[in-house]
Amino acid sequence: MQVDASLCQQCGACIAVCSKNAIVYHRNPINGLLKIDIDQDKCVRCGLCKKICPANKHTKLNDIRDFCKQKEYYIGHNTDDAIRKKASSGGVARTIIIEGLKSGFFDGVYTLKKTDKYPFVEGHFYTANEIPDYDDIPKSIYHSVPLNLNMRTIQRCERILIVGTTCQLMALHQYIKGKCKEVYSLCIFCKQQKSFESTKFIAKIAGVKINSFQDLKHFSYRGNGWPGYCSFNGKSVPWGIAASMPFGKKLWTVPGCNICGNPFGTDVDITVMDPWCIENKSGTGNNLIIVHTEKGRILLKQTPNLYVQKKTLAQVELALMYTDIIKKNNLIPYFRNECDTRTTLYKKGRAVERQRKRLRRWLTILPGMPLIVYRILNRLIKDKR
């Protein structure tokens, strides 16, 4: 058994399922990613790590428009404006988590919990005996988080909610099969996780120099209204400017994110995302909610303190980012090393990688510049995809 770092999605599931502790890892001090290796002397070749790894499953969306036609859409938020303002968007995910436990609808929830050590969050199994406060659940985290490292703490229960990104949920679904009678899943829309180098860059824009994890005393990637601010050690930058280069040009992305084609989740009940492009005015915040199943409809109906309003596909279509998702799906064979080197696709993939490498190097070396410069650069630099 070997680990292919170029495909690793950093979920941590392989480490959690290895009963022989044969999978060893350490965190790269530069980019914050886990470097995973297998101790061949301890490995018994059981194959559990390979079986649970989400990178071994194909998530390519062949027809994004047809996929989206089959869903229901809602705009929603927590009914408490203070909670909405603190949240990344409308606070829908944390409302479902907390109110679901309070009401007894769930007797277990596996999601993220804030911690004091990098990556400042970890996977945690909540029960009716330990219901989190709204401040315990983190807002959007834009550095890599191995949610599934702690999934062995999940206990048998009647009805569980699991919350995570596409790759994290694929592994969680497989792990808890047979452990819980009824499983609900909430996917956090995700097109790319980031390495710590992205955080360093955004902090530089805000006027804060960060060399290591220890330099980050306080941070918030989102919150304080919509669309929010990135704050590092007391200094802030508007999210729209902070995100333009790292997210707009796909820089400092976790390698395994390049092979994930479905940001909405695979076989999930509900997806929660930001209403980009359809809610441009600054405000308190809303979430765009995508319902995939009847269980997803039940989830919305049974959650107290949650306001939702049904929308048509036409009303939310801009937020679904068809073009960007199609471009990403088209390049999956390249990043999986499944296309011939003589093809146009291979040449395009090489051009994309070269552009990202140059931009990363260039933006890392340059000192912090006026915010308007980053806006202009984002518009001038064309997407090689």
Strand sequence of the main sheet, in spatial order?
5-4-6-7-11-12-3-13
Percentage of helical residues? 25-40%
Largest sheet: 8 strands, mixed
Helix/strand structural class: alpha+beta
Oligomer: single chain
Average pLDDT level:
95
How many strands? 13
Task: Please write the string of helix (H) and strand (E) elements.
Answer: HEEHHEHHEEEHEHEEEHEEHEHHHHH
The proportion of strand residues reads 15-25%
End-to-end gap: 33 Å
Number of helices: 14
Q: Nearest-angstrom radius of gyration? A: 20 Å
* Shape designation: globular
Low-confidence stretches: none
Provide keyphrases for this structure.
385 residues; 31% helix; 19% strand; 14 helices; alpha+beta; eight-stranded mixed sheet
Can you tell me about this structure?
The protein is α+β, with helices and mostly antiparallel strands. It has a domain at 64-325. The protein is built from 14 helices and 13 strands. The longest helix has 22 residues, at 344-365. The chain starts with 12 loop residues before the first helix and ends in a 5-residue tail after the last helix. The mean pLDDT is 95.
Provide a brief overview of the structure.
The protein has 385 residues and is of the alpha+beta class. Helix content is 31%, strand content 19%.
Q: How are the SSEs ordered, and which strands pair?
A:
Elements: H1 13-17, E1 23-27, E2 34-38, H2 48-52, H3 64-69, E3 72-78, H4 81-86, H5 92-102, E4 108-114, E5 121-127, E6 157-164, H6 166-176, E7 180-188, H7 196-206, E8 219-220, E9 229-232, E10 235-238, H8 239-244, E11 270-273, E12 287-291, H9 294-302, E13 306-311, H10 313-316, H11 322-330, H12 332-335, H13 344-365, H14 371-380
Parallel strand pairs: 4-6, 6-7, 7-11
Antiparallel strand pairs: 1-2, 3-12, 3-13, 4-5, 8-9, 9-10, 11-12
